[in-house]
Amino acid sequence: MAAQSTLRKSPSDRFSETFDYFYNRLAARLDKLQRRGPLSSRTARLVATLALSLAIITASYGGYKTYSRRKADRETGRRLVRRNSGLRGKDGSRTIFVPYKDSTSRVTIFPTKKTTFDAHRRLFLASSGQAGDKYDPATMGPPPTGIKPGLNVAFLHQFLSLMNVMVPRWRSKEAGLLTTHAVFLLARTYLSLVVARLDGEIVRDLVAGKGKAFLLGICKWLAIGSVSSYTNSMIKFLQSKISIAFRTRLTRYVHDLYLGHDLAYYKLHNLDGGIGQGADQFITQDLTLFCDSAASLYSSLGKPLVDIFTFNFQLYHSLGPFALTGLLATYFGTATLLRKLSPPFGKLKAMEGRKEGDFRALHARLIANAEEVAFYNGGATEHVLLDKSFKELKTWVENIYKIRVGYNILEDFLLKYSWSAFGYIITSLPVFLPVIGELTPAPRSQSSPEPAVEVGSRSKSQNQSDGRMKQFITNKRLMLNLADAGSRMMYSIKDLSELAGYTSRVYTLISTLHRVHAKAYAAPRYQHAELYSLASIEGTLHRGFDGVRLEDVPVVAPALYPMGGEELIENISFIVGPGDHLLITGPNGAGKSAVARIVAGLWPTYRGLTSRPRQNGQDGIMFLPQRPYLSPGTLRDQVIYPHTEMDMRDAGRRESELQSILEQAKLGYLTDREGGWDTRKEWKDVLSGGEKQRMGIARLLYHEPRFAFIDEGTSAVSSDVEGLLYERAKGKGITLITISTRASLKRYHSYTLTLGLGEDANEYEFLRVGTASEKDSVEKELQELRECLAQVDSWKARRQEIEEELGEVWVRTGESGA
Ligand SMILES: Nc1ncnc2c1ncn2[C@@H]1O[C@H](COP(=O)(O)OP(=O)(O)OP(=O)(O)O)[C@@H](O)[C@H]1O
């Protein structure tokens, strides 16, 4: 038996053989070198001295260089952190410094290349969810949000598409982390095998009463234990590293898409609507859960897979084909049963994510509008809304828990108890059924000598019994490991389903962002696109015109895709050249701000042509929105927004200039009042309504654009200051396009565009201020007023009559009542 057992080799045997082979080769080589005869001692000393000197010089130079670089880095870092600024690379990369311990740490961020986005479109915009589909915006439908998240082909496609983003190259950091992780997983499996074998040996030696061998076994056990502990903690560490690396890649990718030049952060919610309420929940929560789940899946699925192959292979050698067939049949049986009975965890998780998002959005809204709600004393109503949203979330989560209970009972019973019972039966087969025992290979020889060689001290039957004991213990441990690996695999079905839910959410976000970028809107299959829907845009937005021009452009309030928007004005045409200050006026809701939105590119030019300057800001166009926006940051950041301090320094602008701008905007007192340029506050709460609007004008004076849309930008400013602000802006050569209902502003403008005229309030009039036609129109208005005034006396008489009649009625009612 012993001779037979040496024919089969375990992985550990093979490892020691390989080690011996390389060790012997190395020893032979060293031996050969020695036999060649030593170099002459002088030459050897010279060579050694030279090599040492060279090493010292290189190391010192390298050390000095590293030290100087780090020192310079630290100083730059401190300076830039103080200024809340960074560095910009020629390739578009940005280097920022973040405080780390007592110093700073450098982080370089490379923007995602346009070609990468183009290449990814076919992955994220394939309507059927198949990677092979050719990308064509005309035929591609919306991203496959309708597909139920679960273990299906769509999930595979979505996951692999996201992997393209998370692991962009084989030589990337993420690929390195995954490979290292895989090496540690393999090492752990190998160590489990060694432990199983050692376990068998220790028990055998214990039963046989071999003290020395037993103690040696314990020492080996401890040594392997320390290596295993290191391996286990490295696996956990690498898993966290992989998760954060995935998250970094995905977050940067999403940010590049979301905050790129296409205004996706506006269009996503106002035009597309593909991801419902908000992207915040997707980016902050779902993305994190997805990365954690994907990183843990790699070890929770990868390790059991490796384990199952290795342990099965081992058991096959120990127990033969019969047992292996039984084992495999059990796996497939259990997997099929669990898969059949498994609730749709993916779908449930995706829905949970949405409900979490809704709840979070309500809270975010309350924070953003706290003052307004407080004035209305609307806390109770908000309370009800929040409680309702939370109740929906809670009910959903509770239902998931309930569904889980039944499934967990089945899963636990099958995987923990049925499998181990089955394992005991299989390992005991060679013991109780000698026929099977003969079919299967006998116990193998190990590093410790087989009892069979100790002839004379023990009987043959005793040796056989020891061998069987060792084999049983080894097999039992292997079986338990196998059951553990198998059950982890099966538990992973649930994890996999949950991952499918998170994958679907993250995929939906990215594919919707790609759709916004590519403007990939098509009419629903076999249907015509609705009028003024995103699939029926035929107009052109032309950037690079020295002025603002609309030619036969309908003003349409858009609806979410794929619905059609509402037409406010059928066609509008006007042109504003440099120096042609325009006042856009008209009743509320007539579409005044809508014109600004069309020119800014927020709303589509459905038909006709819209022309505007190429860039925003200096020498271009600027828009001051109706609701003033104050950014998080310093007082300086408020004046220079959307510039950062880095942009300001690059442009060679100084604080003294900012101070003079603030003074022109009648805000010169702010620097002293707020404690300097670097003061950070919640500016939206600190500044009054009028101050906020004047800050908008200060921004205008800082950026000095050629054209500026001011949407009700001075409604809260007193009229004397208002006039001053207009004169300052015009003095800087800015052509103003003001949106206001205040006719008094006419005097600062050369043209007026009046919207909301006619019976259906869908007509407009474009006039030069002071021209004959404008006088005509004022004359017409005066005539109407005069006619009204002429009727005043007859209206008064009629009112008198009515009051008298009513007086009589009251008197009669009073008498009858008495
Ligand atoms: N994001 C939007 N999506 C769809 N419709 C919108 C959107 N924003 C505004 N609207 C609608 O478009 C119409 C025109 O809005 P707009 O803001 O241009 O009015 P306005 O003339 O500037 O009015 P006001 O004087 O009150 O500011 C309104 O009926 C409004 O309800």
TrEMBL record:
<dbReference type="GO" id="GO:0016887">
    <property type="term" value="F:ATP hydrolysis activity"/>
</dbReference>
<dbReference type="GO" id="GO:0005324">
    <property type="term" value="F:long-chain fatty acid transmembrane transporter activity"/>
</dbReference>
<feature type="region of interest" description="Disordered">
    <location>
        <begin position="442"/>
        <end position="467"/>
    </location>
</feature>
<keyword id="KW-1133">Transmembrane helix</keyword>
<dbReference type="GO" id="GO:0005778">
    <property type="term" value="C:peroxisomal membrane"/>
</dbReference>
<dbReference type="GO" id="GO:0005524">
    <property type="term" value="F:ATP binding"/>
</dbReference>
<dbReference type="Pfam" id="PF06472">
    <property type="entry name" value="ABC_membrane_2"/>
</dbReference>
<dbReference type="GO" id="GO:0042760">
    <property type="term" value="P:very long-chain fatty acid catabolic process"/>
</dbReference>
<dbReference type="GO" id="GO:0006635">
    <property type="term" value="P:fatty acid beta-oxidation"/>
</dbReference>
<dbReference type="InterPro" id="IPR017871">
    <property type="entry name" value="ABC_transporter-like_CS"/>
</dbReference>
<protein>
    <submittedName>
        <fullName>Uncharacterized protein</fullName>
    </submittedName>
</protein>
<keyword id="KW-0175">Coiled coil</keyword>
<comment type="similarity">
    <text>Belongs to the ABC transporter superfamily. ABCD family. Peroxisomal fatty acyl CoA transporter (TC 3.A.1.203) subfamily.</text>
</comment>
<feature type="coiled-coil region">
    <location>
        <begin position="778"/>
        <end position="805"/>
    </location>
</feature>
<feature type="domain" description="ABC transmembrane type-1">
    <location>
        <begin position="182"/>
        <end position="414"/>
    </location>
</feature>
<dbReference type="InterPro" id="IPR011527">
    <property type="entry name" value="ABC1_TM_dom"/>
</dbReference>
<dbReference type="GO" id="GO:0140359">
    <property type="term" value="F:ABC-type transporter activity"/>
</dbReference>
<keyword id="KW-0067">ATP-binding</keyword>
<dbReference type="GO" id="GO:0015910">
    <property type="term" value="P:long-chain fatty acid import into peroxisome"/>
</dbReference>
<dbReference type="InterPro" id="IPR003439">
    <property type="entry name" value="ABC_transporter-like_ATP-bd"/>
</dbReference>
<dbReference type="Pfam" id="PF00005">
    <property type="entry name" value="ABC_tran"/>
</dbReference>
<dbReference type="InterPro" id="IPR050835">
    <property type="entry name" value="ABC_transporter_sub-D"/>
</dbReference>
<dbReference type="InterPro" id="IPR036640">
    <property type="entry name" value="ABC1_TM_sf"/>
</dbReference>
<keyword id="KW-0812">Transmembrane</keyword>
<dbReference type="InterPro" id="IPR003593">
    <property type="entry name" value="AAA+_ATPase"/>
</dbReference>
<keyword id="KW-0813">Transport</keyword>
<keyword id="KW-0547">Nucleotide-binding</keyword>
<keyword id="KW-0472">Membrane</keyword>
<feature type="domain" description="ABC transporter">
    <location>
        <begin position="548"/>
        <end position="794"/>
    </location>
</feature>
<dbReference type="InterPro" id="IPR027417">
    <property type="entry name" value="P-loop_NTPase"/>
</dbReference>
<dbReference type="GO" id="GO:0007031">
    <property type="term" value="P:peroxisome organization"/>
</dbReference>
